[in-house]
């Protein structure tokens, strides 16, 4: 009887954990779909977004692979599975990278995010962005991206630099030094041009006022 009681208790705990995990996953997917609607004016249907946006598929896969990576025996399978995701989506996110909420990749293709990269909440990347390293050491060697950061198409952020909250990196810029919060980094190598914009009255977004972010 005692054994049956322990089995029943264990089953109940497992079932509760499964239900909680399922609810958390569904909430995260709903939040990501809402982020896509907010970030991409081409989004007209959650269903189409759900099945046809490789950027979201890569992000969802990374969340599971990141948890797997944190297990001592999970690093090899997580790395191998991440390469399958790369092949399917065109997005290479190392399973060791840390990524916050409401991360969005528009026109996902050619994205590279290194192992020790850290990405905050509400970050948006366009195609061909690299968050790369400059060292062969095992220590921190990839960028730290703050909250509410936008990185334009083709930009390269290289090394253990920090891009501050609310900053923007222009298309094709090469960033090798820290970018202050609420500023724009443009050019090769990137220089700081001026404050990125003004606070949007609806939801804390930024209305970009400098066309350099797109070119």
Automatic annotation (TrEMBL):
Keywords, comma-separated and alphabetical: Acyltransferase, Amino-acid biosynthesis, Cysteine biosynthesis, Repeat, Transferase
InterPro entries: Hexapep (IPR001451), Hexapep_transf_CS (IPR018357), LbH_SAT (IPR045304), Ser_AcTrfase_N_sf (IPR042122), Ser_O-AcTrfase (IPR005881), Serine_acetyltransferase (IPR053376), Trimer_LpxA-like_sf (IPR011004)
Statement: the UniProt record of this protein carries the keyword Glycoprotein: no
Record's catalysed reaction(s): L-serine + acetyl-CoA = O-acetyl-L-serine + CoA
Pfam families referenced in this protein's UniProt entry, alphabetically: Hexapep
Enzyme Commission number, as recorded: 2.3.1.30
Biological pathway: Amino-acid biosynthesis; L-cysteine biosynthesis; L-cysteine from L-serine: step 1/2
Family: Belongs to the transferase hexapeptide repeat family.
Entry protein name: Serine acetyltransferase
Gene label: cysE
């Amino acid at each position: 009887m005692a054994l049956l009681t322990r089995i029943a208790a264990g089953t109940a705990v497992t079932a509760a954990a499964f239900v909680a995990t399922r609810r958390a996953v569904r909430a995260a997917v709903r939040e990501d779909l809402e982020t896509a609607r907010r970030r991409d004016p081409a989004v007209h249907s959650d269903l189409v977004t759900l099945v046809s946006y490789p950027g979201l598929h890569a992000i969802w896969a990374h969340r599971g692979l990141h948890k797997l990576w944190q297990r001592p025996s999970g690093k090899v399978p997580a790395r191998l599975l991440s390469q399958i995701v790369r092949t399917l989506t065109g997005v290479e996110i190392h399973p060791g990278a840390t990524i916050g909420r409401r991360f969005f990749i528009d026109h996902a293709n050619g994205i590279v995010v290194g192992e020790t990269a850290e990405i905050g909440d509400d970050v948006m990347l366009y195609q061909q962005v690299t968050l790369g390293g400059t060292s062969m050491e095992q220590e921190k060697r990839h960028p730290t991206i703050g909250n509410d950061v936008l990185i334009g198409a083709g930009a390269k952020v290289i090394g253990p630099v920090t891009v501050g909250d609310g900053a923007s990196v222009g298309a094709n810029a090469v960033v090798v030094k820290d970018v202050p919060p609420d500023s724009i980094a443009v050019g090769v190598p990137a220089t700081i041009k001026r404050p990125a914009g003004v606070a949007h009255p609806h939801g804390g977004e930024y209305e970009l006022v400098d066309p350099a972010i797109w070119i």
